[in-house]
């Protein structure tokens, strides 16, 4: 019995999906462009304001370091209680909701940290947090 040999088909690339995608993109961009043109044609009178302030991002949090001997430093500058209160009051006046991070020495006196918390309350700082380190697992 003779073996049938079919002629080999030439390989080809099916372009149907590619053409569909190209046409969809073309329609999408044509419609999007025409909407943008129509939007500019409307006669719109924009409102005006008497005074406006630019949008600003909130300032960085103030980091207060309380050392083991009880002295307090902000940005590597030692401050007295009165200076710290003045600094925090000014920061609160400039940005309502000013954030403060209090870093107390683990070997230091806890009363020093409480004094800083009291100063924060006098300066009307409500957004404060205490920094801690996670103890290693045993």
Name the beta content range: 15-25%
Examine the secondary-structure arrangement and name the CATH architecture of the domain at 62-130.
Answer: 2-Layer Sandwich
Care to count the β-strands?
5
Shape: elongated
User: Helical residue percent?
Assistant: 25-40%
- Rg is 34 Å
- CATH-defined topology of the domain at 62-130: Nucleotidyltransferase, domain 5
| Structural class label | alpha/beta
N-to-C span = 82 Å
Biggest sheet, strands in spatial order? Answer: 3-2-1-4-5
Largest sheet: 5 strands, mixed
Per CATH, the class of the domain at 62-130 reads Alpha Beta
Tell me what the structure shows.
- The chain is an alpha/beta fold and 138 residues long.
- The protein has a domain at 62-130: Nucleotidyltransferase, domain 5 (2-Layer Sandwich).
- It is 38% helix and 15% strand.
- The protein is built from 3 helices and 5 strands; from the N terminus they run H-E-E-E-H-E-H-E.
- The protein has a 5-stranded mixed sheet.
- Helix 2 packs across helix 3 (110-122).
- The radius of gyration is 34 Å and the shape is elongated.
Could you give a short description of this structure?
By secondary structure, the chain is of the alpha/beta class.
Short key terms for the protein model shown above:
single chain, about 140 residues, alpha/beta, Nucleotidyltransferase, domain 5, 3 helices, 5 strands
